[in-house]
Amino acid sequence: MIALLLALGSSLAYGCADFLGGLGARRAHVLRTVMIAAPASLAVELLLWPFLGASFAPATLGWGVASGIASAGVLALLYRTLAIGPMNVLSPLTALVSAMLPVGVGLLQGERLGPAGLIGLPLALAAVVLVSAGHGSGGARPSRTALLLAFGAGAAIALQLVFLHQAPADSGVGPLIIGRVTSSAVTLAAAGLMHRRLGPEKPAYAMSATAGALDSVANLLFLLAARSGDLAVVAVITALYPAGTVLLARGVLAERVHRGQLVGLGAAAVAVGLLALS
Questions:
Q1: Using H for helix, E for strand and C for coil, what is the string for 116-156?
Q2: Distance in Å from the first CA to the final CA of the chain
Q3: What is the DSSP-derived secondary structure letter of residue 85?
Q4: Distance of CA 41 to CAs 37, 121, 184, 204, Å?
Q5: Which of 9, 56, 98, 181 is deepest in the core (most CB within 10 A)?
Q6: Is 170 exposed, middle or buried (0-12, 13-18, 19+ CB in 10 A)?
Q7: 10-residue stretch averages of pLDDT, the chain, 278 residues long
Q8: Adjacent-strand bridge partners of 172
């Protein structure tokens, strides 16, 4: 139950971060948004260090660097995907891809589900798609580039979660700090190489920094959830993050919540209950 609650918190934080990051990427080049978000994330993790501790053993360094490289890809690919849209077509694809790989890894590592979990897991995967899907934006269809970006973003999210899960359980926030240092370095290096293509637009500083801080909170909650529960279950609950994005889009941007999305929210609630019983 504790793992499920932590995973739900992670999902909510990811959803809020994605919403703010997607809006920020509409105002300026995605790298300008990430240049603000990544250091803000690192600042949050450094503040957590004295309270949660951190170790930097070789295994922690290795998995932290791997998660950081994946994280840099997540921020750039996901924010760009949400910026070009349509969000309600691309978001389900990203979320589903992000869930499938960790679920497969968890099951291959010997995790087993009870009867309720065997029903709840596929139901949660279906809810991931339903909760973030809509009727499109004026019938708009995503381009091939947008679809590839969405698939890449989902794969990057999945790899980041798997790499964090592989870090030693007694490493505290060490893998998060190493990962964020790595992603910040990758982002700044990419921005330096592409500075002439970033355009004159200034990033939305507060929005981008808040997105980065929430991303850090989401990573921490996922890490704690994965350490206290099964990766397969934690990953699929975390992948419900589009629910937060959809609800914020409804409240802030007045976007409609369609019937299928409401069905998805209901299915997600049932799935969480079943997984709690497994």
A1: HHHHHHHHHHHHHHHHHCCCCCCCCCCCHHHHHHHHHHHHH
A2: 10
A3: S
A4: 6, 30, 9, 16
A5: 98
A6: exposed
A7: 87 84 74 82 92 92 93 74 66 77 82 78 79 55 76 87 90 92 85 76 83 90 89 83 71 68 77 70
A8: 54
Nearest Cα residue to 224 out of 273, 180, 183, 170: 170
d(CA 84, CA 229): 36
Q: How far apart are CA 153 and CA 25, in angstroms?
A: 15
Query: Phi-psi bin for 29: left (phi > 0), alpha (psi -120 to 50), beta?
Result: beta
Please name which of 157, 181, 163, 180 lies closest in space to residue 79, comparing C-alpha atoms.
Answer: 157
Which residue, 138, 79, 92, is CA-closest to 256?
138
Backbone angles phi, psi at 203, to 5 degrees: -70, 160
Q: Using an 8 Å Cβ cutoff, are 124 and 272 in contact?
A: yes
Strand partners of residue 182: none
Question: What is the Cβ-side half-sphere exposure of residue 140, based on CA atoms within 13 angstroms?
Answer: 14
164 is written with which tokens? 């964090």
Place of tokens 């660097």: 65
Beta-carbon contacts of 138 under 8 Å, excluding residues fewer than 6 positions away, are none
**pLDDT value at residue 142:** 65
Do the beta carbons of residue 97 and residue 158 sit within 8 Å?
yes
